[in-house]
Amino acid sequence: QVQLVESGGGSIQAGGSLRLSCTVSGLAFSAHCMAWFRQFPGKEREGVGTISSDATTIYIKEAVRGRFTIEKNNAANTLYLQMRNLTPEDTGTYYCAAQSGTYCYLREAFDFWGQGTQVTVLS
Fold this sequence. Notes:
This protein has strands at about 5, 10-15, 20-25, 30-40, 45-50, 60, 70-75, 80-85, 90-100, 110-115, 115-120. Strands 2, 4, 5, 6, 9, 10 and 11 form a seven-stranded mixed beta sheet that branches. It has a four-stranded antiparallel beta sheet with strand order 1-3-8-7, with no helix packed on it. The chain is globular and about 40 Å long. The protein has no helices and eleven strands. It is mainly β. The N and C termini lie far apart (about 40 Å).
């Protein structure tokens, strides 16, 4: 069965950094485009960024560009979201998602989703 499991969330002081992980099993990780989304309380899920299956193309939404970046380790079947200079406005639930193919787009459908991990930025 396909599984995407996020980890690395928690509480952190404003200005700090976190690296979220998404471990993937049950699919050909190197043949899937991957993405991160987040959801603030009371709001709809929004895209954070995408990374192509070969990890050569990365797209980061303007709202977090320069602070967040995405990495993909095909050998370890693991996706990462590196976040720095966090602010309380980054507080929310973060999800990883997978789509078959080289490229994927945040406004289009994804085949598989993780359960989410909570990030809380204090002060």
